[in-house]
Design a protein that fits this description.
Order of helices and strands: EHHEEHEE
Strand order of the largest sheet: 1-2-3-5-4
Number of strands: 5
Keywords: ATP-binding, Kinase, Nucleotide-binding, Serine/threonine-protein kinase, Transferase
Helix content: 25-40%
Structural class: alpha+beta
Organism: Streptomyces lusitanus
Shape: globular
Pfam families: HATPase_c_2
InterPro entries: Anti-sigma-factor_SerPK, HATPase_C_sf, HATPase_dom
Strand content: 15-25%
GO molecular function: ATP binding
Number of helices: 3
Largest sheet: 5 strands, antiparallel
Length: 149
């Protein structure tokens, strides 16, 4: 008797990049993530905004000179998971619920919290931490990425 085959109904799509911990690296993370979503035929909103915020946080708060950050996107079933790993595991993110109305920063994680279905932080292994967010990959009302011309 043969053992049943283990396979997924749909393949797991994934995309991983290592980028410099600079504003340019954060910008590239957003642009390349948006292009990958386009390639997969998935909506860019809200994922591109979440990638932008998590990457900006990695280069602002998780930066260690000479160390890069990593962006990982993967889709399992109907869920897109976005992960950004930096090398400052000692600095865990915390949403700033009391940011001043005129403050120029401090609201990034509130945006992630509002846009993502779920989000969190996974520590380690030292010195790393990964901030992740999940969104529905084909939610109703989402705008698919327009075809590239």
């Amino acid at each position: 008797m043969r053992a049943p085959e283990n396979h997924l109904a749909r393949p797991v799509r994934n995309f991983s990049l290592q980028l410099s911990s600079t504003p340019r690296g954060a910008r590239l993370a957003r642009l390349l993530a948006t292009e990958q979503l386009r390639t997969w035929g998935l909506p860019s909103h809200p994922a591109e905004l979440i990638v932008a915020e998590l990457a900006a946080n990695a280069v602002t708060h998780g930066r260690v000179l000479g160390r890069d950050f990593r962006l990982l996107l993967y889709v399992v079933g109907d869920t897109l998971r976005i992960e950004v790993t930096d090398t400052r595991g000692d600095r865990l993110p915390c949403p700033q619920h009391s940011a001043d109305d005129d403050a120029e920063s401090g609201r990034g994680l509130l945006l992630v919290e509002a846009l993502a279905d779920r989000w969190g932080v996974v520590p380690g292994p030292p010195p790393l931490k990964t901030v992740w967010a999940e969104v529905g990959a084909g939610s109703a009302g989402q705008c698919p990425v327009p075809p590239r011309r």
